[in-house]
Amino acid sequence: MKAIVARDFAPIDRLDYADWPEPEATGDTVVIQAEAIGVNFPDGLLVQGLYQMKPPVPFVPGMEVAGRVTAIGPGVKAIRVGDRVAALSTYGSYAEKVGAPEATVMKLPDAIGAADACALICGYGTSHHALKQRAQLQPGETLCVLGASGATGIAAVQIGKAMGATVIAVASTEEKRTVARGAGADTVLGYDNLKEELKTVTAGKGVDVAFDPVGGDAFDALSRSMAWNGRLLVVGFASGTIPKFPVNLSLVKGFSVVGVFWGAFTQKEPQVYAANMKELIGWYSAGKVRPVIEGTYPLADAASVLARVIGRGASGKLILKP
């Protein structure tokens, strides 16, 4: 079969579209014929050796896949050949066929397309965990979302609204701000003078919850814009700069800085993760959340597509298709 192969930790343009061994249906393995493969920011970090973990090389990147089951191992209990499913992994999904342990595979309702299913896993899964478990966002609170036109940002906007928050979306261009507005944001801002803008739109109170996948100068602005008992969520560093936090701000302003590592959460709390996905699928069915799929591209174009995601050039979710 064909797959995208990282021969070594190297720049994204070194990824290779090449032959790769097909997965075998052994043990509790479910083999999935890929119909849609999600492209995520961590994929780009992983192939460059910049992620929290490093798989043995060579390897196939990719965290999420949706498609139809073509084979199951003898230890598989609930999944059957022919089922429509989606699966989560740390890597291995940029391929025509993907093997995944049954515990990481979920059946899909007929109403959810393969591309939307991929978007719901990592992007929406991260934002949901961040706002529900880590921030414990409450109805009526004010939520500020940075990177609000990206996959996790759009998810945070929509999930924040589903949870009853007033949502302030922040994006870098007018085009991206239009996307954030379309996702349901109550107020849309740019990054210029962010501290003063947040002070104005919150009437000096500050934001109760801040969702930050960007880092850099924007984190600094947020850390000076938090309300008393606020929660500043550290989700990622898409700007390329990991900020240094003056802890005295947390003391005098009475807010918490809360880390969000969704990948570790799915492994350490699988039952909570499963409950989260059930809630997300319910919200999807009810029309409360709806992924924005910017485009679908051939699997062979994975390197250029991933480079766009890493370069913050995408608005919404990008999908690969074998």
TrEMBL record:
Residues 10-320 form the Enoyl reductase (ER) domain. It comes from the Bacteria. It holds the Pfam family ADH_N. SMART domains: PKS_ER. Transmembrane segments: none annotated. Signal peptide: none annotated. InterPro entries: ADH-like_C, ADH-like_N, ER, GroES-like_sf, NAD(P)-bd_dom_sf, Zn-ADH-like_protein. One of its GO terms (molecular function) is oxidoreductase activity. This is NADPH2:quinone reductase. It comes from Neomesorhizobium albiziae. The lineage of its organism: Bacteria, Pseudomonadati, Pseudomonadota, Alphaproteobacteria, Hyphomicrobiales.
